[in-house]
Amino acid sequence: MPYVTVDGETVEINGEKNVLELVRKAGIELPTFCYHSELSVYGACRMCTVEIDNVGLVAACSTPPADGMVIHTNTKRTQRLRRMVVELLLANHHRDCTTCDKNGACKLQSLAYQLGVRKVRFGERSEMLPIDDDNPSIVRDPNKCILCGDCVRVCSEIQGIGALDFAGRGADTCVTPAFGRKLGDVECVNCGQCVAVCPTGALTGKSETEAVWNALGDPSKVVVAQIAPAVRVAIGEAFGKKPGEIETGKIVAALKKIGFAKVFDTVFAADLTAVEECDEFLRRLTKRERLPQFTSCCPGWVKFAEQHYPEILDNLSTCRSPQQMFGSVVKRLYAKEMGIKPEDVFVVSIMPCTAKKFEAKRPEFIEDGVSDVDAVLSTNELGLLLKQAGIVFEELEGQAFDRPFGLTTGGGVIFGVTGGVAEAVLRTAATSLKIDLGYVDFKEVRGFQGLRDATVRLGDIELNLAVVHGLGNARKLLDAIRRGEAKYDLIEVMACPGGCVGGGGQPQPNDTESRKARGKGLYVSDKMAQLRSPGENLAVLKLYESYLDKPGSELAHGVLHTGYGPRRRISGDIKINGTRPGALDVSVCVGTGCYLRGSYDVLQTFTKLSDRDDIRGKVNLKATFCLEHCEDGVSIKVGDRIVTGVTPLNAEETFEEQVLSKLCTDRVSCLCGSGCTAKDEERTRR
Amino acid sequence: MGKEIQQVFQRKFDKVNSIVDKHERKVSNLIAILQEIQAEYRYLPEEVLTYVATALGIPPATVYGVATFYTQFSMKPKGKYIVKVCDGTACHVRHSEKLRYLVREKLGLDDSKDTTDDLGFTLETVSCIGACGLAPVVTVNDDEVYGQMTPEALAIVLDQLIAKERAEQQTEEQQEKSDQRPARNGQAKELDDGKGCQGC
């Protein structure tokens, strides 16, 4: 067996791809900023530099191991080099550590301490770049970026999006969305995986703790909490515990202590989601329509589908996510029952997720100016909230959730881990079809593999399922479906690797190991539950009995369902023939969907036609990036009206019908402002 | 609005598409695609880069990254004539600084502004064009090289260039007027005004 020597100790090479893995195998924790085992090797931070005999100083992460290598990890030279790297990084870093959101959880801070950097010999950063905090989920502070590129790689390699990339060169290099725009203006889906990997305070979740404290201090508000499943297995980490420890009782007790009127469980809403989604699925299955059905619990996935795969939006389950079902039920039904006005109930949802913050602010979930969910706290923010209140977490005595939305089943609990929603739907289907399988665990959909598929038999129905996590994997699956290479009945998609347990709002380290441990915690919690199938949840059944009739009823649709539409990834127009004031604006969509359907040829035809002598100068022709009507043919916009279904073949006809007809009326009233006959005559007269 | 900007709009967008097609919409040809688009537009407009990203099936942030990495690419509109003053060591010690200030003064440019409003001229400094024997060197559009320049000599070159550019502008204007007389009345006037103060 080939081997290397790490600081005098012999370590066997057993498939390790780089020296860093071998060093870690030898029990030495080399510091790194830019190395993540799930991402490609970048070798930029140089923190993992080791000294190899006859080679010299090399970055361990990007050096393949060779038989007989003699590696020294802790020499005078490596120490000096690491300290220097950190000092130089600090020289360019906005060092407002005491007031930084990442204070105490920052890798740069802890490594500077660990390596003994006690003085930065260089000045402070002189030029401050603007902070991007316009979107509801993520705050980007470029002044704290150390250019490790973790966010860039996680966004493109794991999520398949690439909303962030390096721009500029040398001292001007920065990580930014396209054209220096804000994250909220580009294709970012708010999943927060960049936040999960960022070693400094350059990318953080947007905090809403202030709004929660304000509500708690407002006597006119009844503050109600809902806690997502993945939070209970991660919050302990904020108080020094291991990932995966179940802390449900303590969270309830702590929230009661700081003044929440009611503490409910999002798992109840997850049960409700499973029941609705199962009903929807069985209906579609009977009619063989809109299959495969995609889950829609994950707001990161929903936005991704809206932007990148508008053609499958019809196949998305119309069920709201558990968070939004909960908000809707509390504001519309519970408030009425309690005799409180919906605007006086303040719903705080505690989520492992940054995208949930975005979801809560979607217009679909705001009725008459009242949001279904008023504030979303991440697991990290919950930890902070409790610390601010001086809660000694370890000493709390657990409490049970409040009724009625505290009664839950194991099926709802596992919504927090990849495969869980599919499994919950399967359990519910078995219950509703009255099939006794003798077991409730569908182990075939569990696991951490990026894409898993399974065939499950329920009575005489055979179901093909796929479970996918990480949007990059979702993209691969969707492309395979597009090409007709894959066929399924039900597909569960979670944006974050591992599902919600790996959400962007979870404590760091948020790596595969922690995610697995958290997932395991949820499966334990599921196993301990008395009721396992969401179809058996008595509180859910009671809700139907009292208010919603039955799953899939019209009433249930009003409260628990929604719809999604295509969404543009980036804004911008290409001006084809100038912008004349008063001329008719005509835009042709060149977003991906329309582009693939030949929008370029349509544009070409329009350019030619608008160059005709009699109408030249009366049309402002533009190419635009997505008119958000991706369903049929190429979309165009004439004035304020969107026309869909244009093809290269009917482009000329469309131009005559939609554009020329408008110009004729302009000719009479002379509004086009670009020199039509009427205007000339008028001018001559004057 | 300057007439030049109008013209930039009018540059046929289909050219972009033929460039992208010519390079088989391959990501590996991105730099070549950007070079040709820049030759067409004289800069890289954001929206066109987004279009290129769409056509190549890559994120716009990636295209932006490439466009900002290389100094040969510009995301700001550039003038028709690009005057490069070399400020490499050899040119610098032979007073290229004076040449730079002269160009600025002649064209009304300063630290924050390197292109004239009518998009006629852009001033760039380069760190050696490899003609140190001719120091100090000034080039125009990379095809005319003026070696061993003095401020006096450069003033003559610039004056000629400005006169040439103005004449070209006038011809284009006239052509456009005859093309589209009624439509452009307001515009042409505005341009006349703009041009009036240019020479002073």
Report what the structure shows.
The complex is a heterodimer of chains A (686) and B (200). Chain A is α/β, with parallel strands linked by helices and 686 residues long. Chain A has 4 domains: 3-74, Ubiquitin-like (UB roll) (Roll), CATH 3.10.20; 88-205, Alpha-Beta Plaits; 209-560, Rossmann fold (3-Layer(aba) Sandwich), CATH 3.40.50; 573-685, Glutaredoxin (3-Layer(aba) Sandwich), CATH 3.40.30. In chain A, helix 9 crosses helix 15. Chain B folds into 2 domains: 10-69, Arc Repressor Mutant, subunit A (Orthogonal Bundle), CATH 1.10.10; 81-196, Glutaredoxin (3-Layer(aba) Sandwich). Chain B has 9 helices and 4 strands, in the order αααααβααβββαα. Chain B has helices at residues 3-10, 14-22, 30-41, 46-56, 60-69, 89-93, 96-107, 151-179, 185-196, and strands spanning 81-86, 121-126, 138-140, 144-146. Chain B starts with a helix and ends with a helix. The A-B interface holds A 156, 161-169, 176-180, 186-187, 570, 572-580, 590-592, 595, 600, 603-604, 607, 616-617, 623, 625, 674-675, 679-680 and B 6, 9-10, 12-14, 17, 45-51, 53-55, 57-65, 68-71, 75, 180-185.
